[in-house]
Specification:
single chain, 311 residues, alpha+beta, 2,3-Dihydroxybiphenyl 1,2-Dioxygenase, domain 1, 8-stranded mixed β-sheet, 5 helices
Amino acid sequence: MPILGLHHVTATVDDAQDDLDFCLSGLGLRLVKKTVNFDNHSVYHFYYGDERGTPGTIWTTFPYKGHGVRVGTKGAGQVTVTSWSVPTGALGFWRQRLTDRAIAVTDLPARFADPVIRFADRSGLTFELIASDHDARQPWVGPGFSSDEAIRGLHSVTLVVRDAAPTVDLMTRLLGYTVIDRAEVRFRLAVNGGGPGRMIDVTEHPEADLAVNGLGTVHHVAMAITTAEEQLDLRAALIRYGCKVTEVRDRCYFQSIYFREPGGVLFEVATIVPGFTVDEELSSLGRGLKLPPWEEPNRARIEPKLPMVTY
């Protein structure tokens, strides 16, 4: 099936202002869309990425502070780490930048020959920066950054499952991935030629407790597909395989289907069109609160329930 690579990663976070400050000022990403959770209109849905929110660069969050959502538990059946791609030689800059913001940084052993550092945000989400000289994507260069340091986009995600074999089988048989490397419990799978933005790491931990969604956890990982027709073909193949797959859902900026892979991780497959400029000019992405067209008549009721934020 024609999976292109990663599309986006979505997480549940705590405070909306903290999240904006961390992603914009800390990580140097661009806010490409400020909208609402389509299933809970009193909660924001922030989309961050490169200049135009290109699939493979997108990180999205639901800030649930004040809504009674418990702190989540990382474990089996979940994306536990989101990794970003930065240029070779940039990690010294990032160590200093994160330390200056009172964010603890851990140096990890090189992974498949690439240097790695790890850190967390205030919600408890775990991130990595992986330095690579195999990423030609043009970054969004925010204030305080240069193109030699800025994040290029998503590098990969790490899944935790109790048994890797069924997960690897689905990904290789239906999604077009290939196992390209292995180190102890970690299987690296790649699609569409591999490289940053087109890889998923599956780690096998039979002893792991089951994950519980909540604050500080990743809700799902999305993979990109070109057309709605290909998405429907894949949906039919997944159903034949035995997966329970949602109907196609209109997310305004892409069309989505959702299913759980055999290890329990929630996967999404999202189209690359129409993109984030469908309702805003490129130069003004993220500046206004954008509601789905069917909720625009309810703006006067929705907007006052959202927390005030500045950026």
